[in-house]
Amino acid sequence: MTEFRESRRDLLKAAGVLGVGGVLGGCSEGDAFSPNKPAVPGSENWMRGEERFIATSCGQCEAGCGIRVRVVEGRAVKVEGNSDCPINRGGIGPRGLAAPQVLYDPDRIQGPLLLTGPRGSGEWKSIAWEEAIELLGERLLQLREDARPEQLGILCGRERGMMRDFWERFATAYGTPNFFDGGRSDDGAEIRASLAMQGIGEVPARDWENAKVVLSLGSGVLDASCQTLHFARMRGRGNGGNGRTEIIHVGPSYSRTAMNADEWIEARAGTNAAFVLGVAHVLVRDELFDQRFVGEQCSGFESWKDDEGREHLGFRAVLDQFSPVEVAKICDVPIAVIEDVARSMSKNRPCFAISGADDLKASNGVHTAMAVHALNALLGAIDRPGGLLTQLKPPLAEWEEVELDEIAEAGLEREPLFDGDRAKARALGRSLDQLPNCLMAGDPYSLDTLLIDHSNPIYARADAGAWRSALQSIPFAVSFSPFMDETTAEFANLVLPDDSWLERWEDSCSAPNLGRAVFGLRQPVVERLYDTRATGDVLIDVAQAIGEGLDEAFAWKDFKSAFKDKIIGLHKSKSGSIAESKGSKFLKRLYAEGFWVGDDYVHEQWERVFQTESGRFEFFSTALWKELQERAELRGESIEETAMDLAGVGDPDLLCLPFYRELATVGETSRYPLSLQPYKPHTYARGSGANLPWLVELAPWRGRSTWGSEAELHPDTARVFGIRQSDRVVLESSEGSLELSAYLTRGVRRGDVRVALGAGHTAYGRFAEGIGANAMTLLSTDTLDPFGGSSVLQGTRVSIRRLQS
Amino acid sequence: MSKNKRSTRRGMMAAFMSRIVDRVTRRTSKALAQPSDSEELLSVERKWGMAIDLDLCNGCGACVVSCRSENNVPTSGPEEENKGTTMEWMSLLPHHKEGSGDGELPVELLPMPCFHCENPPCVKVCPVNATYVNEEGLVAQIWDRCIGCRYCTVACPYDRRVFNWKHTDWPETYRNFLNPDVALRPEGVVEKCTFCHHRLRKLKETAALEERPMHDGELETMTACAEACPAVAIVFGDLNDPDSRVSRMTRSPRASRLHEHLGTKPKVSYLAKDRKSR
User: Of the candidates A15, A27, A244, which has its C-beta nearest B56's C-beta?
Assistant: First the structure.
């Protein structure tokens, strides 16, 4: 009570101050309730109360929404959607809105750090940038002088965009074949499927606006997909403006997408391929599919003979095995549902099916993605309005080609550690999850230095133990992270902190969205807060420090100049939204508007859309067949043996066609009775949302634990194990165990347990550290898709027990 | 031709002058007709309201974050969460169809701002007039006047008022993004959604400077939550204007208000989900 009274007195005092100060248009300094903003660099150039809205592109996910940042007196105060940007047309998701907390995170790394103690000791020494660059430059120069440039590894987690290209250019100019593309592991399976069937190494863009129905197969389109926001807005405008796009969601749990869908079809986890093939079966059986498209633009639908005279199966033959009766058994859904979905989709065209990135991180991921893609072809949804489009790239100019010196040439000739023949023969499939093994094998050589950008494998990847050993085996690691994440804290010898995305020049690196080309500009909205530097600038300086031809390959003043060299292509293309004859005027408008958008999409340009060998949509992927053959040769066995070894399928033809294979699991059922389904909550923000309290407090909704992790399970499952709501429980897998609290919900199938990803950091600043549990630590990489593509997420079995209090 | 032009120009001048005269006289007459008692003050021209289309909303929570960012609403942290004293003006609350026993599934998530009721129970119980209905029908709150008795939090049937349990220690760097347009609230007062009245004021000022009425298009996304909503589910506007989008949405057969039987007359309507069936 006394406490209350005291605070009330304080309050009255404060009220008095506020009362006076408030009227005068500002609070007196030193008052506990005034904003009391600290000085920031550059604020002296702003007038008191001056406010500007600066157009840029959001950097919180791959959607690439246009935003306007409200900057008051040199401080970024709020993010608002840019209503002119065609991707988001005004709205902006929670992740983007949380951007000020990225910029002003109290635990950002404020300057270059050099490790002085042993790794993981946290004994850092602040050093100057010149010193840091000299240090790294000398080390890299030494590697080249010793003629072993291949011993430099670059782990780059950027999916797309100029900075990714910049890193690749650095790797090439330096002469290392060990550029590890970490960014593609999220959409890996989908990209593999698109590459196999269409010859396009990118996920398709989706025309939500014109689609009547969308069949979501375990996708998180309205949870944590890379473009949730874009999808949400387009769905509202959907059906060509005649209402909204209808969503049918198939999946094991009541996700946010299921909640928002018009219909949720509860199906067993990992059986989506079967469901899709069941739908396709009905379409073909009842001749409801787009026969003209299949006849004119597709190959491999019927059985066929190749040039060597070998008979191959066609898609029709595969479908014979997937009658609704069979599929209903596999997926645990009523037969009628499959028939209904097929008829509804064929009736309500245009429509398309979409698979989910996380759902595809399973042992049968690539084939599930292929099945979904095949269904889209049957529905005639490829490159038609209301279907899947092949994203056009903005007409950026190319940088001058790198001239390689002898050392670089020799280095690039060396066998890459990750996808060299030896690595391929050693392990099946190609997924970044196998990288630690490749690094540790030391065969044919091991790395000396690793540069880590936009990547935190110790936290975000399965089998952190393997990653730890692999990183430990590399003598020198450099991190470019702006935050002290796990990988940086435990393994970096040198930290060269990047600017936050509100402080640097970049493109928006957005995932396919509209079909037509969009270029999103990212520019500094405030002056940089600390002694950090954009990684692009650092690379240029390091290249200059090395010399030996790298200085010529990176002969720019700074990254902004390199960036400008590229965007001049937009101007020269004389197309799109910004038509200016003078280059300077073009740039001025681009900086003011924040984006450039190309001309309208032209449908059915088949030569562009189908870049397969046959120039058609391939139900039977000849590329996969070739890959199988190559692999069989590498391993010195017949193609049938390889097929058996890879996927337990005797007929290699089936592996080149959309096909359903049972989900492989780790952990025997008797010991680990539950199947674990880790998922990304909608605030996941590339796994980096945990240090943003606005996002942490948002998920999943009020009344549930937000600052902590929950094991979501069915009340019946809970009863079996004697667990009640909110009990503390322990989940255990063959890889490790986790402590979290139970949340009972009928939205999870009996026998499953669902855990949100993104929590359980052991570093990463005051808001993230020690909050919740990280489900990735339960996963084993034994269930990788033999066809590679994505990393692993599905297929781990766990046990659960109540923690005695 | 030239004669014609001149006449047009003259016409234009005349129109311009008459507009100015009009404005002046209107202003004067308005000032003269200033209502003296509070009863008349409440009979307003504008009636601000909101409609939330649950068919479009996907519960992403952009409104919640946008509200926090706009209105300097602090996050609470694990400790406050355990005590149940979290702070939120705009909440995302799960709506369960049947009961809310163990395992029941929410059918949707409701974004819940203050409903700015026409007959607000919270205003009636406030012993110090810290909360009141302003001249445009908004349920406003004077932070400095609130004594923290929390009668209003009890009276509000929608739980749309939150008590500020603790002094927020903003990390030094976080102070940078505080919105200078919105005062920070001291510990021990009740807080609530203001329908972003500071943004409304800005809009009014802009319209006045540009000598034009506010148009519905800019009002639709006036509040921080509506402006951020990626699905265009939240729409703000004038309920007295029958053509405004919010009015049209409110008249939809799908529209309803929460706990209408209580007679609070909330000014926020929800448009029910429109699940398509095959």
Answer: A244
Write out pLDDT tens, residues B16-75: 555 555 554 454 444 444 444 434 433 448 899 999 999 989 888 999 999 999 999 998
The pLDDT of residue B3 is: 41
Domain B38-271 indexed as CATH 3.40.50.1220: no
Cis amide bond preceding A700, omega within 30: yes
Q: Which position has the higher pLDDT, A424 or A355?
A: A355
**pLDDT surpasses 80 at A232:** no
Chain A closest-CA separation from residue B196 CA (Å): 14
Q: What is the length of chain A?
A: 805
Q: Are strands A179-181 and A152-156 parallel, antiparallel or unpaired?
A: parallel
What's the pLDDT score for residue B16? 56
Tell me the chain B residues in contact with residue A105 when contact means C-beta distances shorter than 8 Å: 173
B64 φ, ψ to 5°?
Answer: -65, -45
List CB contacts (< 8 A) between B186 and chain A: 10-11, 14-15, 18, 32-33
Chain A nearest C-alpha distance from B232 (Å): 7
| pLDDT(A349) > 80 | yes
Kindly determine whether residue A702 and residue B227, on different chains, have CB atoms separated by under 8 Å.
Answer: no
Chain A residue at shortest CA distance from B185: A33
Asked if B76's CB is within 8 angstroms of A697's CB, the reply is yes
Greater pLDDT, A706 or A352:
A352
Cα nearest neighbour of A748 on chain B: B103
Identify the pLDDT of residue A222.
81
Domains in chain A (CATH in brackets) are: 113-185+417-511+516-574 (3.40.50.740), 208-252+261-282+289-391 (3.40.228.10), 622-656 (no CATH), 674-802 (2.40.40.20)
Give B-chain residues touching A707 at CB under 8 angstroms: 77-78, 81
CA pair distance B92, B98, nearest whole angstrom: 18
Tell me: the pLDDT tens digits for A257-301?
A: 898 899 999 999 999 999 999 999 999 999 999 999 999 999 999
For residue A524, what are its two tokens?
């500094």
Domain boundaries, chain B: 1-34, 38-271
Per-residue CA distances from A170 to A290, A402, A409, A449, A480 (Å): 47, 9, 13, 14, 15
Distance from CA of B170 to the nearest CA of A (A): 9
Distance spanning both ends of chain B, measured CA to CA: 65
- A682: pLDDT confidence band, cut at 50, 70 and 90? confident
Contact A232 B65 (CB under 8 A): no
Q: Measuring CA to CA, how many Å separate B269 from each of A26, A736, B57, B253?
A: 36, 49, 13, 11
d(CA B210, CA B213): 9
Confirm if A712 and A754 have CB atoms less than 8 A apart.
Answer: yes
B91 neighbourhood in chain A, CB within 8 Å: 702
E strands in A239-330: 246-251, 263-266, 298-299, 304-305, 311-312
Give the residue among A205, A191, A206 at the shortest CA–CA distance from A366.
A191
Q: Which of B172, B185, B230 sits opposite A92 (nearest CB)?
A: B230
- Report phi then psi at A121, rounded to 5: -75, -20
Closest residue of chain B to A244, computed from CA coordinates: B56
Beta-carbon contacts of A712 under 8 Å, excluding residues fewer than 6 positions away, are: A253, A743, A744, A745, A747, A748, A753, A754, A755
Q: How far is A229 from chain B (nearest CA, A)?
A: 6
Give the ipTM of the model, two decimals please.
0.91
Residue of chain A with shortest Cα separation from B187:
A11
Instruction: Give the integer Cα–Cα distance in Å for A685 and A277.
Output: 33
**CA atoms of B229 and A91, how far apart (whole Å):** 5
Cβ contact (<8 Å) for A693 and B189? no
Is A262 within 8 Å of B145 when comparing Cβ atoms?
Answer: no
**At residue B8, does pLDDT exceed 90?**
no
